[in-house]
TrEMBL record:
The active site is at 347. One of its GO terms (biological process) is methylation. CDD domains: AdoMet_MTases (cd02440). Belongs to the CFA/CMAS family. GO terms for molecular function: methyltransferase activity. Pfam families: CMAS. The keyword Electron transport does not apply. This is Cyclopropane-fatty-acyl-phospholipid synthase. It comes from Candidatus Staskawiczbacteria bacterium RIFOXYB1_FULL_37_44. Keywords: Lipid metabolism, Methyltransferase, S-adenosyl-L-methionine, Transferase. InterPro entries: CFA/CMAS, CMAS, SAM-dependent_MTases_sf. PANTHER family: CYCLOPROPANE-FATTY-ACYL-PHOSPHOLIPID SYNTHASE (PTHR43667).
Length: 376
């Protein structure tokens, strides 16, 4: 039986030009023969957990996933965890307001020091814009500037940042463009950091879910709205509510920029391993889901895909993480190291294979007069 499972895995991987115990840096080295049955039974969850358990190794995980996903072979199959995930997403609202703070508590509140060491001085936890950038910090500031230009932010304008993170965009928009920024997040640690990060600037931060904006800001219309790397936590059942909330908070002549990771195909579930260990209750939207839920609320003025830049961003985060690990390992164990390593490099490989995307979408409540002029 074990030999049959090994042959099954070998056949699948060979079609992606990956060998078991081969010499290439993207080949996998199996240390525990139970690996084959675990992956066969649990799909991507078994693949990730067995790596965390040190059952297999790979010198270049990003290269492994790039080849795997480029060949249109998924590490996930219709195993029990996958089927249960689909069922849960269909039956329950996994991103209901009662669960809104779960991802903050389990991921974003881990440790501000860890994120600072990994993300750099901008504390931007989203795709950088590498068109002319030569470093991670330059790419993140270029992304902030791109957003400000796409929104045509003017001095004194009031900006709402839905999912403000550690305040990187707020700092940039307030400092460079003279904007007044209100940021909201579901992470207590992000609020603490953002308030110190933006001290002395026209920026304030609130610990709240976006759905609370209806009552808190219904009469306070913002000149523009930005949401960077937060829509992945909204969920299919809440997309319409999200867009309605944004429209209620936006001036009739304002613009809304949505920056989100996207799925090239419509789905209602996420990768089981990422859901369990990194982003609980996450879901990647498709353009179809975004467009259908924005219908009758917004005009889609511009769609810009620079998902390939996320590969570079993730590889830089990984480089920083590895460089800082000698210090971080005093707080985190080897299993955490392998989990974080797997997370960053598997995602880099996925963006390199173009199996997931990064979109910046500009929307307006009633259409820009004369037409929106795209900025790249």
């Amino acid at each position: 039986m074990e030999n049959n499972l090994k042959q099954w895995a070998k056949k699948i991987l060979e079609s992606a030009e990956i060998s078991i115990n081969g010499q290439n840096p993207w080949d996998i080295k199996v240390k525990n023969d139970k690996f084959y049955n675990r992956v066969r039974a649990q799909g991507s969850l078994g693949l990730g957990e067995s790596y965390m358990d040190n059952w297999w190794e790979c010198d270049k995980l990003d290269g492994f996933f790039y080849r795997l996903l480029s060949s249109y072979i998924s590490g996930s199959r219709l195993s029990l965890p996958v089927l249960l995930g689909f069922a849960r997403a269909k039956i329950f609202n996994l991103q209901a307001i009662s669960r809104a703070f779960e991802v903050g508590e389990k991921h974003y509140d881990i440790d501000n020091r860890l994120f600072f060491d990994m993300l750099g001085k901008t504390m931007a936890y989203s795709c950088g814009y590498w068109k002319a950038a030569k470093s991670l910090d330059e790419a993140q500031e270029a992304k902030f500037d791109l957003i400000c230009k796409k929104l045509d932010i003017k001095k004194g304008q009031e900006i709402l940042d839905i999912g403000c993170g550690w305040g990187g965009f707020a700092l940039y928009a307030a400092k460079k463009y003279g904007a007044k920024v209100t940021g909201i997040t579901v992470s207590k640690e992000q609020i603490k950091y953002a308030e110190k990060f933006c001290e002395g600037l026209a920026a304030e931060f609130k610990l709240q879910d976006y759905r609370e904006l209806n009552s808190a800001y219904y009469k306070n219309k913002f000149d523009h709205i930005v949401s960077v790397g937060m829509f992945e936590h909204v969920g299919e059942k809440n997309y319409k509510t999200f867009f309605k909330t944004a429209k209620n908070c936006l001036n009739k002549d304002g613009l809304f920029l949505l920056h989100t990771i996207g799925n090239p195909k419509t789905a209602n579930n996420t990768d089981p391993w990422l859901n369990k260990y990194i982003f609980p209750n996450g879901m990647l939207p498709s353009l179809k889901q975004i467009a259908s839920n924005a219908e009758n609320l917004f005009i889609i003025e511009d769609v810009h895909n620079f998902g390939a830049d996320y590969d570079k961003t993730l590889m830089q985060w990984h480089k920083n993480f590895i460089a800082k690990w000698p210090k971080l390992k005093n707080k985190y164990d080897e299993r955490f190291y392998r989990m974080w390593n797997y997370y960053l490099l598997s995602c880099a490989g996925a963006f390199r294979a173009r199996s997931i995307q990064l979109w910046q979408i500009v929307l307006s409540p009633r259409g820009v007069k004369g037409g929106y002029k795209p900025i790249l």
